[in-house]
């Protein structure tokens, strides 16, 4: 597999060196630029897979650089800023940036955001997901039946039955999110991973879309949404589905636990 190339654009050599070391340590290729002119040359010559772009780029305006890049290229851009300014974030997103990181940043956050944007831009197939478990088949494919804590999930009918046999009233978005959890029980999933896996959700780093959707799903499947026992929050990372999932295969009636 070809190594992804990241262009780091920052006028601070220490930041460029830090990001190079971190990203190369994750198996990614790195090229550097200290100003707008060098950035445009690198984009033309090396065609990076993603650009990290400092807003305060010395004599250059990072937002204008992002606008100029987006005018001729769809390469993903992550803006980097030394201040947590909502206006800068909004403008950065409006000119075409894909994400936003504030200095000082944690290197793990940089890696997670870079990988998340790369995944979204490349759109890998479900089979490429290394943490996927038993998939919920599409309607009409004779998929297995999933059950947990008295709730029954019928993927072929896109239906989820509550403990009393009535419908849980899940929307399509709710069902997609629940499917992601049931396919990966007891796995810790970051918010970015959930966004990528659910798909079809318009979002930005400024909102809490995935948190709101998890809250809605909890209201429909948890016995006490204020004290969730199925979908647990992993502080600073994301969520994990800790319920015991039983899977009944429709072809032979066999039951297994996940």
UniProtKB/TrEMBL annotation:
Gene3D superfamilies: 3.40.50.2300, 6.10.250.690, Winged helix-like DNA-binding domain superfamily/Winged helix DNA-binding domain
Domain Response regulatory per the UniProt entry, residue ranges: 5-118
GO MF annotations, alphabetized: phosphorelay response regulator activity; transcription cis-regulatory region binding
Species per Swiss-Prot/TrEMBL record: Roseovarius marisflavi
Protein name, UniProt field: DNA-binding response regulator, OmpR family, contains REC and winged-helix (WHTH) domain
DNA-binding region(s) from the entry: 143-243
GO BP annotation list: regulation of DNA-templated transcription
UniProt keywords, alphabetically: DNA-binding, Phosphoprotein, Transcription, Transcription regulation, Two-component regulatory system
């Amino acid at each position: 597999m070809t190594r992804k190339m990241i262009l780091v654009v920052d006028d601070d050599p220490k930041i460029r060196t830090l990001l190079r070391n971190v990203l190369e340590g994750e198996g990614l290729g790195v090229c550097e630029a200290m100003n707008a002119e060098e950035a445009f040359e690198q984009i033309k010559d090396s065609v990076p897979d993603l650009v990290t772009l400092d807003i305060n780029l010395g004599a250059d305006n990072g937002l204008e650089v992002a606008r100029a890049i987006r005018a001729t290229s769809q390469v993903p851009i992550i803006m980097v800023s030394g201040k947590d300014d909502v206006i800068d974030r909004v403008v950065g997103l409006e000119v075409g940036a894909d994400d936003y990181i504030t200095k000082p940043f944690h290197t793990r956050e940089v890696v997670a955001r870079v990988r998340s944007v790369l995944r979204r831009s490349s759109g890998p197939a479900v089979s490429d997901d290394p943490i996927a478990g038993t998939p919920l088949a599409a309607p009409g494919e004779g998929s297995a039946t999933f059950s947990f804590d008295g709730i029954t999930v019928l993927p072929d009918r896109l239906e989820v039955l509550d403990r009393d046999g009535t419908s849980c009233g899940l929307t399509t978005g709710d069902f997609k999110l629940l499917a992601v959890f049931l396919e990966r029980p007891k796995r810790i999933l970051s918010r970015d991973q959930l966004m990528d896996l659910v798909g079809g959700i318009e979002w930005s780093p400024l909102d809490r879309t995935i948190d709101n959707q998890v809250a809605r799903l909890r209201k429909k499947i948890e016995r006490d949404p204020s004290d969730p026992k199925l979908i647990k929050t992993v502080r600073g990372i994301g969520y994990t589905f800790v319920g015991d999932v039983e899977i009944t295969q429709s072809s032979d009636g066999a039951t297994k636990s996940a």
